[in-house]
Amino acid sequence: MSQNDVIREESMEDLWNVWYSELHHGRAGLTLKVKQVVYSGQSPFQRIDILDTYEFGKILVLYGSIMITEKDEYIYHEMISHVPLFTHPHPRQVLVVGGGDGGTIREVMKHPQVERATLVEIDQMVVEKSKEHFPDVACELTNPRTRILFEDGARFVAETEEKFDIILADSPDPVGPGEVLFQKKFHQDIYDRLNEDGIFVAQSESPWWHQRTLRRMYENISSIFPIVRLYWAYIPTYPSGSWSFILGSKKYDPLQDFKADQYAKLNIETNYYNEGIHQAAFALPNFIKQAVFNR
Question: Same structural domain for residues 153 and 241?
């Protein structure tokens, strides 16, 4: 490539001066330079945008908020999945509420003990577009052990008579149709749908930007489950770069019942989660303890 070709390439990038910005409370946020608008459309539930960015590859944006990026999606999906799956001794039936991109299902399917994973996603278009544009994320949605139901997750949990060993609330932000997934009734319905030794994990937003939501969720889940643990992970493209999860369990404590032998036996491929991270994720800095536990 000649020097003129390099200059011409750089000039074309400068000409395509398109940026995506996600602001938090209108005062701070993340800005990414966009290579190309891959898809933009409106489902019956929300706006869906897929953008190709220079730093994080393709990104899935729902209602104006980043859901996943090709570069760092594995962190969220590994942490919401493997922490409970390596705590429960026999995770045969798993329910995922939300998560139509398929990343959580992909991680769940790395556990051969799982006989069936049920994905309940309200927006069929999210699943279709994820299969089309994020095949590495949605790769297990066609697995015979995966069952996909296109319906309201909260309604399904409230009305089904099925029981599960693990339920994962891979929910969007608490706005619009996703708001009900952060309410105490939903958490109680989750408890009722779990087997007697079941485990529940929900994403609980940013410990920097959403402390009130995090505190209320922790209080709600603590009033229902006998064992409740808060943990977190570093996710570059999520608000503040840190994200929290709340685990509610009927019997098993993720700090005491981690299945080290199963972890060693499976030797699953991960990019973020490992045995050390499993333990360290529950070590909380003081600002989170103060915000959530008032101590």
Answer: yes
